[in-house]
Amino acid sequence: MSARLEDAGDRLIIWNGNTDKRGALSPELYECIMKACEMASERRLRSIVLTSEGPFFCAGGDLTQLIKSQGMPADQRAARIDSLHDVIRAMRACPVPIIAAVEGGAAGAGLSIALSCDVVVAAKGAKFVASYVKAGLVPDGGLTAHLARSVPRQLAMEMCMLAQPVLAERMYDLAVVNALTEVGDAMDVARQYADRFGAGPRDAQAAIRKMVAAAYDTTEAEQLDHERDAMGHATGAPEAAEGIAAFLEKRSPNYS
Questions:
Q1: Structural domains of the chain, ranges and CATH numbers in brackets
Q2: 13: which strand partners?
Q3: 202-215 and 238-248 are packed helices; what angle lies between their axes, rounded to 10 degrees?
Q4: Over the stretch 77-91, which tens digit does the pLDDT of each residue have?
């Protein structure tokens, strides 16, 4: 099975299969991610966890499939890339946080998908590789945008133009990786993050997620307006009533 979706109560877990190809991308994985993002809105879930069935998170595009693309007209090649970009757009628009649990590493478009998540948990020694240039290709899946916002320009150039692997330890030092774990423990720590999101105020978290995403593309004046509108709404919402009451009463809030 190339990918499967596990319903785990207040969260969904996307398991990337395709283990004989180190978790290479597949239509089934795309479908699972799109479905999870859709369900997050319909069911008021609290989080989505994305991980792998095997020892490697995702090796990116399947080169045997890319070979088939070479003989296609340009518009058909573009349509195949848009399939990946639709997945990235769905992840960015998802109302709940997405947590990546990375074992082994993430390469090519697998790195694009990992960096599109809101929280990245990685096992020690995992390698992050923008491997496209090795095959005479260029990054897609929003990778250049993510790297430009996450790491120094010189490192982004080295990663993209030389396919220089970067260990999880260095990505952790750069705050691109949120948590560094022992090998085999990434999923356990990702579940802990999901538990923390599950105990929080869902609507406030969704608003924060949306505001932070918008902040990369707006002016400070526009962002102040966004914050004003969001804060005005949040102040009158039930979550704030519960949160403020819990603070004053010195108890833990109940956002269920």
A1: 3-198 (3.90.226.10), 202-248 (1.10.12)
A2: 6, 49
A3: 110
A4: 788 889 999 999 999
